[in-house]
């Protein structure tokens, strides 16, 4: 499974559907997130919750056993192609840069994506929850 930052945000910010994402994160499959997505969620969490949020994020990574993968030039090419096809201003999916990063990792590793929201459902990426 590829974990998008939106799924972790739902958990860490106590959103109404957080249990759905916690259950998915507890599944026995391997879980991956790119270093770019890790940076993105780290910035968002610390901006909203301070150092306590950053500590909670680190704990969630450890408990869920999310493996961080480097983001290289081949992934960047796939992410750029995703933006061309599905990006904001180009498609109703309206993927932002962070979304394109998660999309690329999902496509390259042929793994379903755990995400919150409707934007990825308008692309050709597989959803972990469906």
TrEMBL record:
Record: residues binding Mg(2+): 4, 99
Keyword list, A-Z: Hydrolase, Magnesium, Metal-binding, Nuclease, Toxin, Toxin-antitoxin system
CDD domains: PIN_MtVapC28-VapC30-like
Nuclease recorded as keyword: yes
Enzyme Commission numbers on file: 3.1.-.-
GO function terms (MF aspect): hydrolase activity; magnesium ion binding; RNA nuclease activity; toxin activity
Cofactor(s) recorded in Swiss-Prot or TrEMBL: Mg(2+)
Superkingdom, taxonomy of origin: Bacteria
Enzyme class: hydrolase
PIN domain location: 1-124
Similarity remark: Belongs to the PINc/VapC protein family.
Cited function: Toxic component of a toxin-antitoxin (TA) system. An RNase.
HAMAP family per UniProt: VapC_Nob1
The protein's name in its UniProt record: Ribonuclease VapC
Source organism (scientific name): Teretinema zuelzerae
Gene name linked to the record: vapC
């Amino acid at each position: 499974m590829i974990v998008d930052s939106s799924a972790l945000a739902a958990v860490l910010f106590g959103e109404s559907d957080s249990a759905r994402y916690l259950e998915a994160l507890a599944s026995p499959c391997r879980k991956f997130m790119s270093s770019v997505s890790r940076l993105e969620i780290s910035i968002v969490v610390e901006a909203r919750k301070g150092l306590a949020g950053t500590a909670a994020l680190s704990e969630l990574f450890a408990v869920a056993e999310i493996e961080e993968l480097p983001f290289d030039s081949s992934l960047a090419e796939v992410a750029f192609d995703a933006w061309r096809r599905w990006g904001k201003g180009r498609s109703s999916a309206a993927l932002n840069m962070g979304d394109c990063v998660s999309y690329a990792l999902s496509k390259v590793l042929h793994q379903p994506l755990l995400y919150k929201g409707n934007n990825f459902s308008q692309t050709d990426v597989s959803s972990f929850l469906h």
